[in-house]
Write a structure and sequence with these properties.
The complex is a heterodimer of chains A (about 120) and B (about 250). Chain A has three helices and five strands, in the order H-E-E-H-E-E-E-H. With about 120 residues, chain A is α+β, with helices and mostly antiparallel strands. Chain A has a single domain (about 5-120), classed as Beta-Lactamase, CATH 3.30.450.30. Chain A has a five-stranded antiparallel β-sheet with strand order 2-1-5-4-3, with helices on both faces. In chain A, strand 3 (about 70-75) and strand 4 form a beta hairpin. In chain A, helix 1 (about 5-15) packs antiparallel against helix 3 (about 110-120). By secondary structure, chain B is of the alpha+beta class. A five-stranded antiparallel β-sheet of chain B has the order 4-1-2-3-5. In chain B, helix 6 (about 130-145) runs parallel beside helix 10. Chain B is globular and about 55 Å long. Classes of the chains: A alpha+beta (about 120), B alpha+beta (about 250). The interface between A and B is medium-sized, with 28 and 30 residues.
Chain lengths: ~120, ~250
């Protein structure tokens, strides 16, 4: 029944060092689902704010005339990684997965790989 | 500025009520105090979104309604017959519900009432807390005002401004620009694009702010509203007119 919830749960259990994860609609900035986060990381605020990041990059690519698509955006902080993965596929135009990771515990390559898998699972 | 009406939603939710909150601008359905559906003449429904994106044929949609409509489980039936994955259904339905709720709960004077026991034939997909829906509705209004505080672009025919040196637009915005023919409004564009109306308003306000679209001059004494005037006329619910007559009659005797 709760497909988004299951996907987000899988992200938090399968990705080492996950602090929070959200599925976000990037035009409205609304989080369709969130898991984790807390006092130090308000995922609904992060969702709305990161839509500006995605939009800025999409616009820049248009300005540069790059006919390509963004797979993911990585933001590296002192203690955290923030990973934004744009979701493609039928009918899911304009969504992204947002993942906040503890830099000390996370394996970035694995996190990317898992996020890709979770994206595919939203389809089935 | 906030009307009493949204808190009526929360009040009904607090009573764990089941039924429909009816306003001129749309309807929000509660099941055991949780929001399970919403619709508004201003917002494309789930069917419009799915059909315009060619995710479903109108025959498939009609069959599903015939089969499951009476049992109020159209949504689940779309998944059970493998027409949609449950992730797709949930994403599409949530999008449509928040979109319709934005217009249905817009601050606006006018009668609000609650019809106990009313359920929607689509059936529940992911029930939402009323506070969450209200908070999101408020956030959306603030977002629009932040992008370009000119609500008159929301309902007017969309007119392009082809001045040079306008900043680049995204592909999604390009699709909106391409439909701007000086006749279509953002609401007709949303239907053609198969996108939620609010999303189209966001793009229209951004494009107007960037100078790609003209901003009509604000009509004197026009009340700023995200709802076009014709929406109010569309929901000619006989019960509403009855209530109005009652109110007028009561006021006349007081």
């Amino acid at each position: 029944m709760a497909n988004i919830e299951i996907c987000l749960k899988e992200a938090t259990t399968s990705i080492e060092g996950t602090l929070g994860v959200a599925l976000v609609d990037y035009t409205s900035g609304m989080a369709l689902g969130t898991l984790g986060g807390g006092k130090d990381l308000d995922l609904t605020v992060a969702a709305a704010g990161n839509t500006d990041v995605v939009r800025a990059k999409v616009r820049t690519m248009e300005m540069l005339g790059l006919k390509d698509e963004i797979e993911d955006i990585l933001i590296t902080l002192g203690g955290q990684y923030h990973l934004i993965r744009l979701i493609k596929g039928r009918g899911k135009n304009g969504l992204f997965l947002y993942l906040a990771l503890d830099k000390g515990r996370a394996n970035l390559a694995m996190a990317r790989h898992q996020l890709k898998k979770i994206e595919a699972e939203l389809e089935v | 500025m906030r009307a009493l009406n949204p808190s009526m939603l929360v009040r009904m939710a607090g009573d764990r009520a089941t039924g429909a909150l009816l306003r001129e601008t749309g309807t929000v359905y509660l099941l055991d105090g949780e929001v399970v559906h919403a619709e508004s003449p201003a917002a494309p429904g789930v069917d419009v979104l799915l059909l315009a994106r060619r995710r479903l044929s109108s025959a498939e949609w009609q069959e599903t309604i015939d089969r499951a409509g009476a049992r109020c489980r159209v949504g689940r039936s779309l998944v059970e017959s493998n027409l949609l994955t449950s992730g797709e259904l949930e994403i599409c339905h949530l999008g449509a519900v928040f979109d319709a709720a934005f217009f249905a709960l817009a601050p606006r004077t006018g009668p609000t009432r609650f019809r106990y026991g009313a359920t929607h034939w689509f059936g529940p997909v992911r029930p939402l807390r009323a506070e969450v829906v209200e908070r999101e509705t408020r956030r959306r209004q603030e977002l629009l005002d932040r992008i370009w505080p000119h609500p008159e672009v929301d309902s007017a025919p969309v007119v392009r401004d082809r001045a040079a040196d306008n900043p680049a637009v995204t592909r999604r915005q390009r699709a909106v620009l391409d439909l701007a023919d000086g006749i279509r409004t953002p609401f007709t564009m949303a239907r053609l694009l198969g996108r939620p109306a609010f999303h189209t308003l966001v793009d229209v306000r951004r494009l107007a702010a960037a100078g790609h679209l003209r901003t009509p001059r604000r009509a004197a004494a026009a009340e700023p509203s995200p709802i076009p005037a014709w929406v109010a006329d569309l929901s000619a619910d006989p019960d509403i007119s009855l209530l109005r007559r009652l109110r007028d009659a009561l006021e006349a005797t007081l």
